[in-house]
Specification:
five-stranded mixed beta sheet; 149 residues; 35% helix; 17% strand; alpha+beta
Length: 149
C-alpha cells in the first residue's frame, strides 16, 4: 500500500478521502486500507459525477463502505470482483425506504453511473445504496436494480 497518501485530502467539495477508507473492520483486524493514487482519482470522479449531485439534492450523505483493499474486502465478505477494490464504488446509508427510493431514482435519472443497487437485507431491515462510477475503464453501464439480500 502507498503510505504517502494523505487520507485527510478533499476529493470534492463535500467529501474527504478518509470517509472512503475508514473501516471498523480494518481497525479491528489491523488492516492497512490505504488506497493507491489510481484509486484516489477514481474515488474523486465518483464524488464529482454521482455523490456531489446526490449531496446537493439530499443533504449530508454517510458513506458506510468505500475503497476496500483485498484483505478488507475478504474480511467483510465482499465479492471478489467488487468495484470497491478499484476505488469505483461506495455504499451509502439510507435512513428509510422512502428516502432510499428517492435517492435511487435521482441517481438513475440525473447521474452518469455504472452500477446502482438499492440493497435491503430482509432479516434485520438494514438498507443501503451501492453506487459506482467508471472513469477510466470503459463506458458506464447504467445498471440500476432494487435488490433484497
Amino acid at each position: 500500500m502507498n503510505n504517502q497518501i494523505d487520507l485527510r485530502q478533499q476529493l470534492s467539495e463535500h467529501f474527504r478521502l478518509s470517509e472512503f477508507v475508514d473501516s471498523g473492520t480494518a481497525r479491528q483486524l489491523h488492516i492497512d486500507n490505504t488506497p493507491e493514487p489510481i484509486h484516489v482519482e477514481r474515488l474523486r470522479q465518483l464524488c464529482l459525477h454521482v455523490l456531489e449531485p446526490l449531496r446537493r439534492r439530499f443533504g449530508v450523505i454517510r458513506i458506510t463502505s468505500g475503497y476496500r483493499c483485498e484483505r478488507l474486502n475478504e474480511a467483510v465478505g465482499g465479492v471478489s470482483r467488487s468495484q470497491h477494490l478499484l476505488g469505483e464504488a461506495a455504499d451509502l446509508h439510507i435512513a428509510n425506504m422512502e428516502v432510499g427510493r428517492k435517492m435511487f431514482e435521482f441517481v438513475r435519472t440525473h447521474c452518469d453511473f455504472d452500477q446502482l443497487l438499492f440493497e435491503h437485507r430482509m432479516k434485520n431491515g438494514c438498507r443501503w445504496l451501492h453506487v459506482s462510477y467508471r472513469s477510466d475503464r470503459g463506458p458506464n453501464r447504467h445498471d440500476a436494480r432494487m435488490m433484497r439480500v
